[in-house]
Amino acid sequence: MISKKEHHTDTPLHLDEKDMGILRLLQQDAKMTIRDIAGQLNLSTTPVYERIRKMEQAGVIKQYAAIVDPRKIDKSLTVLCYITLKEHNKKCGKKFIQEILNFTEVTECLNISGEFDFMIKVQVKDMDEYREFYVNKLGELDNLSHTQSIFVISVIKATHQVVF
Amino acid sequence: MISKKEHHTDTPLHLDEKDMGILRLLQQDAKMTIRDIAGQLNLSTTPVYERIRKMEQAGVIKQYAAIVDPRKIDKSLTVLCYITLKEHNKKCGKKFIQEILNFTEVTECLNISGEFDFMIKVQVKDMDEYREFYVNKLGELDNLSHTQSIFVISVIKATHQVVF
DNA sequence: CTTAATTTGGAACAAATTTCTATTTTATTA
DNA sequence: TAATAAAATAGAAATTTGTTCCAAATTAAG
């Protein structure tokens, strides 16, 4: 499709019902052909093509991704790990964030309200691999005050769908 | 690409380094051409094409998705809502799950260990819209015992990358 | 109502995917 | 170790899809 590593601008973009229709379809299946999208929305290929291009450039569409099933690649254990830092100044926060970004086991890191400062989602093979991560990677950070691990028993719903 | 709504089987599939290389690339950019992938991995198009097809059919690649930036479509508030049920028998659990699946605001629902039974991730416009969801949708379920809302202050990391 | 700006349809073109066949590589067995 | 079978690969041909172009239609502004 389009998206040849062109930098997306932050131009605001008003999305009408046709744009939303396109997003709805592409969220579910990014491999739909422009012709098929056009067919479903009763348009021709050109407007669909142009609208997708604009949404890519505006950053509405951030990425096209192949979604891999963790269970099929032996990364079946998901753990939510809650973290509080000892010190909360800017420098310490930046350092923590930088190190978290480098941990490939961490698929998500949220700065949150409440008792803890951060929630990280860790995707690993099994409990052994989690312990390895918890002790030798997370445990080596020097600004940690308190952590709590919550284990995911089953995934009921997981979607990227934010346009309806 | 491939993936013309063919049913994926659950055939186990051994993934070698070439498959992993393909997944690595497609996770980051599903629009990469087979030629480019082949170029980067020093292969020709056919093996890359066949390997992708096999991984689609085996369910390793679950989906190709356009990732939409929630901020660009006015869904900037993310809330983690923790839930315990009154009754935990199979029937009640199924009912709860069924209703959660229908809430478009809920992008994720995990059955978890610890104090609460479920964590749901809710993606909305603002606090008004969250209140609306919390009171009129979630609050209308009849099996809820206790809930807690944790608000996401900022997203540090969010990836779908599980192959490295 | 008239004009300007934007959006759209449909056809022509370029580029990608998909298929096919011959060849090479890997694995198996004698 | 050599011979054979099975699987994977390269390269080119066929097909499908993405992209561009321009004229027509629609919308917005004066």
Automatic annotation (TrEMBL), chains A, B:
CDD domains with a match to the protein in the record: HTH_ARSR (cd00090)
Keyword S-adenosyl-L-methionine: no
Keywords of this entry: DNA-binding, Transcription, Transcription regulation
Gene3D superfamilies registered for this protein in UniProt: 3.30.70.920, Winged helix-like DNA-binding domain superfamily/Winged helix DNA-binding domain (1.10.10.10)
InterPro entries associated with the record: ArsR-like_HTH, AsnC-type_HTH_dom, Dimeric_a/b-barrel, Tscrpt_reg_AsnC-like, Tscrpt_reg_AsnC/Lrp_C, Tscrpt_reg_HTH_AsnC-type_CS, WH-like_DNA-bd_sf, WH_DNA-bd_sf
Domain HTH asnC-type, chain residue ranges per copy: 15-76
Pfam families documented for this protein: AsnC_trans_reg (PF01037), HTH_24 (PF13412)
Domain of life (superkingdom): Bacteria
Protein name in the entry: Lrp/AsnC family transcriptional regulator
Species in which this protein is naturally found: Chitinophaga hostae
Phylogenetic lineage: Bacteria, Pseudomonadati, Bacteroidota, Chitinophagia, Chitinophagales
